[in-house]
Amino acid sequence: MTLMILSHPNFEQSIANKTIVTELTKQRHDLEVRHIYDLYPDYKIDVTAEQTALLKHDLVILQYPMYWFNMPAILKIWFDQVFTYQFAYGSQGDKLKHKKLLASLTVGQPEHNFIVEQNFHLMESFLKAVKASAQYAQMDYIDPIFLYDIATVTGHSKIQIQTKAKAHSQYLNTLINTLIDPK
């Protein structure tokens, strides 16, 4: 089964993330979505509930919009509080070992804004902490996927963004199938 940790502070106003989650839940009845902003508007994470959810799933998807070249604040708090000693790391902290972690981000700007000289992609730098955290917890880090250029301020219509988000959702569903049933 697959767990999605959804971290969007304005989900009801979202176009891309809302479309991705809506479409993916239509395709996958085995998907558990935990919208941590809805669950913890006071930022007081129920660590036991989150760890229990992690234990039930083999694949964990982090779905969020990139905020100031990073994850939304509540997702960082979620990591800090849920990935605890003797759960995610430590001499007996192997509870997440071999679970897969996949980041799925939406980014308002076009992809070319994140490529610098010699095709170095800045997103690799922005996600180093996520990758290191997954590896420290003995998880299998899956290369992240991105949905770029989805801001309405750049002139994209709601329908254009939804179309791109539906394609992202389809790709994500295909990737999930590959990851949880690699035949």
TrEMBL record:
InterPro entries (alphabetical): Flavodoxin_fold, Flavoprotein-like_sf, KefG/KefF
Flavodoxin-like fold domain location: 2-169
GO MF annotations, alphabetized: electron transfer activity; FMN binding; NAD(P)H dehydrogenase (quinone) activity
Coiled-coil intervals: none
Pfam families: Flavodoxin_2 (PF02525)
Keyword tags: Oxidoreductase
Keyword Oxidoreductase listed: yes
The protein, known as: Flavodoxin
Species annotation: Acinetobacter qingfengensis
Lineage: Bacteria, Pseudomonadati, Pseudomonadota, Gammaproteobacteria, Moraxellales
